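re: the backbone from monday

yeah here it is again, tokenized this time
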């Protein structure tokens, strides 16, 4: 995991790597109108179509393209880290779920947080865990919205924590 890699290369060498990683994440999302609503070393959540609403197909396309772009950038970064003698590997996975969410400022008036609430936000997080490292996993709604422009590989019906029924998941093919 991440802690073991920090121990291996040392925190002084890992800090620039983490900064480079977050820059790549932000760039990949912002290039396609993504809004980060939370992030940390273990993951992040972004929404597309907020605060300015986008057509659902456009939002799905931008989200999936961001995930695929991020996977590509991370692979390039890992190659460069290897060349520099730092055996660092980040296990990136992404999930995309399409549907409505409540987006806005939540929390107490003196410390509001911009966030998104709803089952599709949670589902995207959980879909990410269903794929292999380096995969962008989409739900059946996203696959249907992007059917004419996105090749996918079926992962099959997957059990997702918190749901009483399986979700059909697909790996997006870049």
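seq for it, each position gets an aa:
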């Amino acid at each position: 995991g991440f802690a073991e890699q920090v121990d291996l290369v040392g925190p002084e060498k890992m800090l620039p790597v983490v900064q480079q990683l977050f820059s790549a994440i932000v760039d990949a999302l912002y290039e396609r109108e993504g809004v980060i609503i939370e992030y940390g070393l273990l993951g992040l959540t972004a929404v597309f179509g907020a605060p300015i609403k986008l057509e659902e197909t456009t939002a799905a396309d931008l989200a999936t393209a961001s995930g695929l772009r991020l996977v590509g950038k991370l692979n390039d970064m890992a190659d460069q880290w290897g060349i520099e003698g730092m055996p660092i590997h980040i296990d990136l996975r992404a999930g995309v779920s399409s549907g409505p969410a409540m987006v806005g400022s939540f929390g107490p008036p003196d410390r509001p947080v911009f966030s998104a609430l709803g089952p599709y936000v949670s589902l995207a997080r959980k879909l990410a865990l269903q794929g292999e490292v380096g995969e962008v996993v989409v739900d059946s709604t996203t696959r249907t919205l992007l059917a004419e422009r996105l090749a996918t590989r079926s992962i099959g019906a997957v059990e997702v924590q918190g749901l009483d029924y399986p979700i059909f998941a697909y790996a997006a093919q870049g």
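The chain has five helices and eight strands. The longest strand covers residues 151-158.
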